[in-house]
Design brief:
The protein is of the alpha/beta class and 173 residues long. Helices cover 49% and strands 17% of the residues. It has a five-stranded mixed β-sheet, with helices on both faces.
Length: 173
C-alpha cells in the first residue's frame, strides 16, 4: 500500500505494430485494462497517450524506448496515439521511432475513457490490472523520477514473487 502511494505521488509530480487483439473500442477503463492484462499476462504495463503535435511527447519517446529495452522481462510499454489522422502519427514515428507497441485511437475512445487532461499522459498498470500510477506531461527530470518509481515497484513485485515461490515450495515439501 505504501509503495502504491509512493508511485501515485511520483507519477503525479524500432518496430511499430498495432495489436489487433486489443479492444480499442472499449468504453471503460476497466475493460481496456482487463484486455491489456489478458494480452500481456504477468507483465506490468506502462501505458502512454501521445499525439504528433505534442512537444513533450518527442522527449518521452527515447525514455519509453529505454524502458522497453531495459525492463522487457517484467514490463511492456504501449503508446496510444490520439491523432485523428494516422499519417501524422506515422510521420512523427519516422522522426522519433518506437521500439514498443503503438495503438491508434483516432476516434479518441480510449482517451475519453481515461479522461485525459494532458499530453503525454502515462499510467502504470499492475499485473493484476490495478492502476497504480499516473503522470501528466513530460518535463526535465521526469525520466529519472518515473524510472526510479517504476524500478522500485518492479523490485517489490519481484520480491513478492520470490516469497510466493518459496511458500509454494515449502508447502510441497
Amino acid at each position: 500500500m505504501l509503495l502504491s502511494l509512493i508511485l501515485t505521488l511520483s507519477f503525479q509530480a524500432g518496430e511499430i505494430s498495432q495489436n489487433q487483439s486489443l479492444d480499442i473500442d472499449s468504453s471503460s477503463v476497466e475493460s481496456f485494462i482487463s484486455n491489456l492484462n489478458q494480452q500481456y499476462p504477468n507483465k506490468t504495463i506502462y501505458l502512454d497517450f501521445w499525439a504528433s503535435w505534442c512537444g513533450p511527447c518527442r522527449k518521452s519517446f527515447p525514455f519509453m524506448n529505454k524502458l522497453h529495452s531495459k525492463y522487457a522481462e517484467n514490463l511492456v510499454v504501449i503508446a496510444v496515439n490520439e491523432d485523428e489522422n494516422q499519417s501524422l502519427a506515422d510521420k512523427f514515428l519516422k522522426k522519433y521511432p518506437a521500439a514498443f507497441e503503438i495503438i491508434y485511437d483516432s476516434s479518441g475512445k480510449i482517451a475519453t475513457a481515461f479522461d485525459l487532461v494532458a499530453m503525454p499522459s502515462s499510467y502504470i498498470i499492475s499485473e493484476d490490472g490495478e492502476l497504480i500510477g499516473k503522470h501528466a506531461g513530460f518535463r526535465k527530470g521526469d525520466d529519472i523520477n518515473l524510472e526510479a518509481a517504476l524500478v522500485k515497484y518492479l523490485q517489490q513485485t519481484k520480491q513478492q514473487k520470490k516469497l510466493l515461490n518459496l511458500d509454494t515450495n515449502e508447502d510441497t515439501k
